[in-house]
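Weekly sync, protein design subgroup
Attendees: M.S., D.O., the rotation student, P.L. (late)

Item 1: inverse folding check
M.S. brought a backbone from last month's batch and wanted to see whether the design step gives back something sensible before we order anything. D.O. pointed out we never logged the input encoding, so this time it goes straight into the notes. Structure tokens as presented (490 positions):
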């Protein structure tokens, strides 16, 4: 771009892009309320299939139940706040656009970068657990894990590239299949359920069966309780592909959260209260639903249902690939990430470069962890799950700060939907997210992964300080933010 096309605003530099720039970066509208509901539920539903149960091992069933209650309160405040912001700021940037409008370019970038890490690592977590299911079903050796991971990324990044209509139709169908599988499990588990099995973890000296590892166990269980909701907040990333954002986005978010509360509570009780109980499901398996089916329906039936049960993991994998594709696309279109990442496919109008780039990065994270510790030392799933939560809670903190600023300084902004919890809900969610961020560093088993993801975050900040801040473009999010910040007196 020519020097004359540049404009310095504060510490950042904008480039005026022509219409041709945006013509190469167009999206197609398709999503309605049901599509958004399915995208939100589908993105999270893998949490009911794998990962959550490791929190029972950290805190005992009572500790995990308390952690789940805290996580539910946080997501209620988060989702209602995001519902209000998404209707008022209807851009595909989602969290980044909330931060950008209220806190300037640095606030937008920090929020977007944290969410980017969250979604890329989350797909890696889901890919890891899906590979575990496939390994268990087909009895393949551990050395085959990277082959499963590569195949999953190629297939589902490819499906996202095919087209937004096909992508949303797939996510609606696969989400309903996942919910059906969960329903079959709930019904099959009821005759086998025992209240006593929930409390069969031996308590540490001086502790109780309700909290066998004390209050410290509750803190250690929090990231795994968050896993039952993590990524529901991705829905605003589909804003520019939605027909009626102000109506459909809040409905999709709230209905999605209600669905996940119900499935999360049921899986927590019914999966833990069968077979080997909390002592087994808390630490001895990374495929709790598959092992649950083996107990309730027998090994042969479980293998068949296990294949179908992978639908839940695939739903999340596919939906979160969609999320990081749109996250990378929006940050790149605005210049925070390299511009070429936001190019969209000519006829399909999907951000194919962003989807491929995010997939390569997610697969690379898995391979690095695999090469460092191929057997995972029994903590592979926990390490990478905690890494995803690290990015998530930073993004949550930033979004709640954005909401509070929006309420106080952007009264002129039209709000088609208002959170019934208001600032109070945002403050509660912010406080819980801050506590979780601190607690993530407490567990020595997962700390190396947290340090690694923290270094990734710091590296991203250095990139923006040195280069990215000089390459910004007046994208819809940026133009909107600049215009409305004047109305807020900023």
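Designed sequence read out in the meeting:
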């Amino acid at each position: 771009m020519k020097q004359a096309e540049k404009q310095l605003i504060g510490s950042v530099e904008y480039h005026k892009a022509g219409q041709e720039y945006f013509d190469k970066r167009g999206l197609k509208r398709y999503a309605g309320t049901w599509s958004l509901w399915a995208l939100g539920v589908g993105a999270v539903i893998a949490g009911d299939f794998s990962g959550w149960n490791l929190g029972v091992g950290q805190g005992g069933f009572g500790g995990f139940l308390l952690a789940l209650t805290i996580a539910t309160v946080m997501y209620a405040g988060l989702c209602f706040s995001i519902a209000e912001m998404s209707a008022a700021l209807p851009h595909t940037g989602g969290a980044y656009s909330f931060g950008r409008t209220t806190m300037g370019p640095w606030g937008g970038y920090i929020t977007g970068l944290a969410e980017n890490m969250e979604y890329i690592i989350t797909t890696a977590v889901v890919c890891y657990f899906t590979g575990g299911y496939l390994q268990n079903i087909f009895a393949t050796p551990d050395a085959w894990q990277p082959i499963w991971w590569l195949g999953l990324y190629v297939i589902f990044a490819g499906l996202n590239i095919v087209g937004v209509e096909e992508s949303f139709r797939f996510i609606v169908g696969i989400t309903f299949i996942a919910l059906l599988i969960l329903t079959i499990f709930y019904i099959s588990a009821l005759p086998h359920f025992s209240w006593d099995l929930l409390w069969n973890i031996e308590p540490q000296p001086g502790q109780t069966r309700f909290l066998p590892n004390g209050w410290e166990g509750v803190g250690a269980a929090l990231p795994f309780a968050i896993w039952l909701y993590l990524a529901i907040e991705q829905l605003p990333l589909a804003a520019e592909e939605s027909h009626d954002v102000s109506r459909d986005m809040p409905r999709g978010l709230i209905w999605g959260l209600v669905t996940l509360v119900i499935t999360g509570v049921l899986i927590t009780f019914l999966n833990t209260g069968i077979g080997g109980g909390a002592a087994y499901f808390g630490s001895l398996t990374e495929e709790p639903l598959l092992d649950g089916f083996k107990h309730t329906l027998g090994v042969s039936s479980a293998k068949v249902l296990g294949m179908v049960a992978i639908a839940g993991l695939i739903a999340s994998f596919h939906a979160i690939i969609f999320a990081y594709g749109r996250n990378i696309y929006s940050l790149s279109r605005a210049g925070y990430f390299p511009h070429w990442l936001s190019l969209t496919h000519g006829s399909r109008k999907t951000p194919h470069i962003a989807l491929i780039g995010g997939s390569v990065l997610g697969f690379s994270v898995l391979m690095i962890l695999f090469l460092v510790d191929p057997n995972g030392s029994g903590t592979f799933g926990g390490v990478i799950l905690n890494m995803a939560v690290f990015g998530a809670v930073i993004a949550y903190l930033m979004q709640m700060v954005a909401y509070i600023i929006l309420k106080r300084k952007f009264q002129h902004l039209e709000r088609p939907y208002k959170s019934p919890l208001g600032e109070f809900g945002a403050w509660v969610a912010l406080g819980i997210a801050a506590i979780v961020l601190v607690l993530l560093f407490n567990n020595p088993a997962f700390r190396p992964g947290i340090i690694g993801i923290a270094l990734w975050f710091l590296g991203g900040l250095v990139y923006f300080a040195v280069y990215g801040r000089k390459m910004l473009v007046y994208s819809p999010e940026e133009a909107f933010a600049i215009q409305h910040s004047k109305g807020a007196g900023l």
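Discussion: The chain has 16 helices and three strands. The two ends are 29 Å apart (CA to CA).
Action: P.L. to compare against the previous round before Friday.
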